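Sample entry (185 residues):
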Amino acid sequence: MKTLLFSAAAAAVLLPAAAMAQDDAGSSTRRIEPYVGVMGGVHNFDSETGKEGIPPVGYKGRMVEGVAGVNYNVAGPIVVGVEGTASKGVSGDIDWEYGVAGRAGVKAGKDSLIFGKVGYKWVNFDALGPDSLDFHGTTYGAGVELSPADMGGSAQSSNIRLRVQADTMGNFRSIRPMAGVVAKF
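Predicted structure, serialized as tokens:
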């Protein structure tokens, strides 16, 4: 699993360089769009015993998350991509989380995006002590990135998007609503 994480991190670092070297001769839409963002939210775990490696206690916590990724405009409004995340708990039972996910979405309006994602996430809980094991599992969710150009702004497009998403871990063993801002470059 750590090989997957390192491979995704390498892709997230190297693909922006490829995007800057790309020549969009005659095209107003870039095919490769790297982005970064900051989000905040809450992660609530079920109290049911699960087989997905999630502890059987109703842990929860508020967190701040950094996100970095790359989207690729496949054809028309279809977008695929990969992103990595790192979160730090600011209150509650969660110390930190990190993960990687693949995304697929559809552009809506001038510059907004509706997406779904599937990936893998590792979680460390403060409540289990300083040397506790990381819990991990499959994560999936959906969200929307809203552009100011589509929310009544006068610009034709914007590099800034308001992002709202909800994720879950394992077999619906948690709910993780998040909101924040992402910027493409």
